[in-house]
Amino acid sequence: MEVVRFNEMEEFNTPEGIMKPLFVSEKIAVIYLKIPAGLKVEPHSHPRDGAMIVTKGRVKLNDVELKAYDFAYISANFEVGMECEEKAEAILISVNPGYKSLDELKSILRRFEK
């Protein structure tokens, strides 16, 4: 078992909002995301399966609006865009993420902050 202390985790500014990686292994990555009001992310895809659970506010993925506690599964290579009119929060889950550790993911996210 591994325990994560949410308030002790580092945050990173990215084009999709403020990401706080919570857990990473070769099998799964879990990231908390604060999405700013007015955010628009053009459609893009990721090479691995993923999921989003909205925990606060509303988020539009393509033309589907998600609200608190809605869950979206996004299969690998599926193009999805995101829009957010008001502040929102979500948990992102990536399956077989392609990075092997929390430190490796943090290194990737630090590149956005420059």
The helix-strand sequence is: EEEEEEEEEEH
Query: In CATH, what is the class?
Result: Mainly Beta
CATH architecture: Sandwich
Report the average pLDDT across residues.
94
Number of strands: 10
User: Low-confidence spans: pLDDT under 50, at least 5 residues?
Assistant: none
With strands numbered from the N-terminus, the spatial order across the biggest sheet is 1-2-3-10-5-8
Number of helices: 1
Strand content: over 45%
Our count of domains comes out at 1
The main sheet comes to: 6 strands, antiparallel
CATH fold-level label: Jelly Rolls
N-to-C span: 35 Å
By secondary-structure content and strand pairing, the structural class works out as: mainly beta
As a whole number of angstroms, the C-alpha radius of gyration is 13 Å
The backbone outline, from C-alpha atoms, is globular
The CATH homologous superfamily name equals: Jelly Rolls
Explain what the structure shows:
The model has no long low-confidence stretch (mean pLDDT 94). With 114 residues, this protein is mainly β. It has 1 helix and 10 strands, in the order ββββββββββα. It has one helix at 102-110; strands at residues 12-14, 17-24, 28-35, 39-44, 50-56, 58-61, 64-67, 71-74, 80-84, 88-95. It has one domain (8-113): Jelly Rolls (Sandwich), CATH 2.60.120. β1 and β2 (17-24) form a beta hairpin. Strands 1-2-3-10-5-8 form a 6-stranded antiparallel sheet. It has a 4-stranded antiparallel sheet with strand order 4-9-6-7, with no helix packed on it. 18% of the residues are buried. It starts with 11 loop residues before the first strand and ends with a helix.
